[in-house]
Amino acid sequence: MSVEADMFMVDGEHEITRASLSDMQGTNLPALYEYEVASNFVAHSQFVFRETWRNEGEKKEGDSYWFFPKDFLDVGSSNN
Q1: Domain ranges, residue 59
Q2: Is 78 domain-assigned?
Q3: Given CB 3.0 to 4.6 Å as the disulfide criterion, which of 4, 41, 63, 78 pairs with 50?
């Protein structure tokens, strides 16, 4: 099995940048992903976590999980 993760920063119309994490296959360590997203990008940005594997026919299969930073935004906190 292979594990991948990407953070897509989007301004609403265009992808600004993509931060990809390297394959963590074989590390046997838990994964912790932390990102800071500017408030003007949080509404449209996305985090994608993928697990992929090869089946008996060597066809790559897997599952993807999509998360949206705006769903985890803590509007009550302040860094001022």
Answers
A1: 2-72
A2: no
A3: 4
Asked if residues 39 and 77 have their Cβ atoms less than 8 Å apart, the reply is no
**Domain presence at residue 25:** yes
How many domains are there within the chain?
1
pLDDT at 39: 82
Q: In what order do the strands lie in the sheet with 15-21?
A: 15-21, 2-10, 46-54, 60-67
pLDDT value of residue 22: 64
DSSP annotation of 22 reads P
Count, in order, helices (H) and strands (E) of the chain.
0, 4
Indicate if the pLDDT at residue 20 is higher than 80: yes
Closest CA to 19 of 40, 2, 33, 3: 33
